Amino acid sequence: MHLPYLIVVVIYTTLQFVKVKADGTKPSQGDIEQLFDFEKIQSPNLSSPVSPTHPTNRSRCKTYPEDPEWPSPQQWKDFDTLLGGNVLIKTVPEASPCYTNDTATPSSPICQSLTSNWGRSDLRIEDPTSIRSVLFQGMTCMPPAYSPAFFNATTANKTTLGCDVGGFPEYTVNVSNVAQIQESVRFARKWNIRLVVKNTGHDFGGKSTGRGALSVWTHYLKDRKVVGEFVEGGEGGYVGTVVKLAAGVQVYEAYALAKEYVITLVGGEGKTVGHIGGYIQGGGHSPLTSIYGMAADHILSINLVTANSTFLAANATHNTDLFWAIRGGGGSTYGIVTSMLLKAYPRIPVTTMRYNMTTSRTFPRAKFWQAMKAYIDRFEEYADLGHYSYFRIRHVNGEIFHDMASWVAPNTSATDFRASIAPLLRIWHDIGVPFDPIITEYDNFSDAWEEGFPQEAWTWNMRQASRFFPREHFTNDTKRLQSFEAVKEVFEEGANLILFNMRNPPGSEALDNAVNPAWRKVLLFAIMFVTWAPGDGREFVERLSRNLTEVWNLRWRALTPGGGTYMSESDYIEPDWQQSFFGDKYPRLYKLKQEYDPEGVFYAQNAVGSEDWGLSEVLLGHLPSQNSRLCRK
Questions:
Q1: Are 158 and 151 within 8 A, CB to CB?
Q2: Where is the FAD-binding PCMH-type domain (predicted)?
Q3: Which of 122, 169, 544, 608 would suit a FRET pair with 263, their CA atoms being 20 to 30 Å apart?
Q4: Lowest mean pLDDT among 16-30, 413-427, 564-578
Q5: pTM of the predicted model, to two decimals?
Q6: pLDDT 10s digits, 570-580
């Protein structure tokens, strides 16, 4: 029997700034790593020996609401009481106001509001279970205007408009302290219930959802503090400013903090993404990657709750194997992170460029691709200047629409930036590119990011795949042309494209963490995606989905043998995902998974160790459905 612990219901948003101590000495590692208030609220040591063997045949599958082993309503009520009361949330799908007795009521004011705002991540992340990748949840409760026509009437699929929980978690714990996380892990382990972790739900691969699951929702853990003049212990330790962020801090909040304290943080481009969730744990590319590397490279210490409910710190001197694994090995795998200590850098000037262009009678497709080839031919030059560009090429009304979301040049004045791109612009002028760029110089990265990366919509009707094209493909004329043609071909065959030009800085390949080694060689990160309309039939959508994986993705993979891609923005059924996402680091990551979580308390699609498990149903004939039973193979 576990005794209730002290519960503090307040959601902490503490901001602290620690400089040199009163006696003139610099703060020590211990000073820096003092726990946030919410981390001080802990349960007694809940750790228990984990089973050295696989579960029995009876418990080979996770327990589900239809199983006799499922906790009774009273046991769920007792669990909520243990957590402090009114913490456990029974899932009601976000779009449920659009249905009355399973009949669509799209004209209701609340449903109309949901429909018009369905793509707004800033609103939808406030729901306990909403996610971006609803396809893999089963799309069992969508606003009627978006409810797909192609699902058939099985547990995982639907034809009639209606609303049920489907592949969403059954319950969510809105955590406000470490004790609640510890008890949630313990409860899931005790009852053999699937456990998922949700921060904001941005993940492209359905990692933060699952039928019958208990979800740990970290979104409201918002504490953060900045520490100046930090000296890390040990030879070669980091010296400089550090920032400590709690699990729920989002990118826009982290960058606002950086601006306030005149520093620079390495983070994502998406405004509402969680800064230290799956983003950074999966590696995390950034508009600053070309000069500073991956976001995971800047982690100094991690606080987390492991699969046996132990709360611990992992850093360069304690629990070093976990410290290595979590920096790039993926989220929802080794534990639930509560906070991280991160390197910060001085404020830097940044210049950005934005533009768009559309093909037309006077600017035909041939000229567009001629212009793109001239740009891609210079990828090595621009990346080595420290630049990062994020651009899209899409099909719009029968024409090609290309927009440069933001070309970011850190530590660069507008004058120097213009000089660096002048040769390209002369070529574009000669081609006749309709080009009216907006070039802006900023005295800090946060403002450059704020204006250059507007909030993007959550697209529900899409599937994507991706690949890294390494530097060697841009130093060799033949491979560079092959890479260009590979990107062009999938577009002309129907795909849309999201492309990034960046590098990892020299020396980053020597860093000892779990970041995919293929990241260290990249110059082009290419994403292709397909979309469909709500009324499109199953055969059409399945053909799109299969073609993405079985034709286009295989074509890019064949051109880059032994390469990889970014786990967080990849094909949901990426072939040989262990190699693609982790390279030669996978064997060590898998060994650590068996050591720290042999029971499989933490599971996520394509996460380390997930090959030991399988989902019982598929969507569109080939996509594992999160709206099905999870069983050990």
A1: yes
A2: 165-347
A3: 122
A4: 16-30
A5: 0.93
A6: 999 999 999 99
